[in-house]
Amino acid sequence: MPEITTDAANRVAKDAFYVGVGLGVIAFQKAQVQRVELTKTLKGQVGEAKGQIDKIATNADAVEDRFEALLDEIEAKLPEQTREIVQQARVTARDARQQVRSAVGWAA
Q1: At what angle do helices 6-76 and 80-104 cross, to 10 degrees?
Q2: Do 105 and 98 form a contact (C-beta atoms < 8 A)?
Q3: CA quadruple 32, 37, 40, 41: dihedral, nearest 10
Q4: Which H/E stretch holds residue 86?
Q5: Burial class (CB within 10 angstroms; exposed 0-12, middle 13-18, buried 19+) of 101
Q6: What is the pTM of this model?
Q7: Which tens digit of pLDDT belongs to each residue from 51-106?
Q8: For residues 51 and 43, what is the distance between their CA atoms, to the nearest angstrom?
């Protein structure tokens, strides 16, 4: 059986250390590349989602405007006391919509 010298053991330990460091560096670089790719992907998806949300908000605004116009027409035909109650309800609903829009970050 060959005899293991201290120099040979030191060389093996040194080589193992260098291999370990090299593998660590490669793993770190690979993780960095994956992080950059994931960041690019997520930024693209966030941009698309924001565009879709903006379209939804624009459509919701258009529907709300049309609905308000219809309510104006109906309200004009109501008796005075009923009209006041409907106006109060509409103000309350408008305030609630503003709070929701503020909470989700939609400008009015």
Answers
A1: 170
A2: no
A3: -140
A4: helix 80-104
A5: middle
A6: 0.51
A7: 898 888 889 889 989 999 999 999 999 999 999 999 999 999 999 988 988 887 77
A8: 12
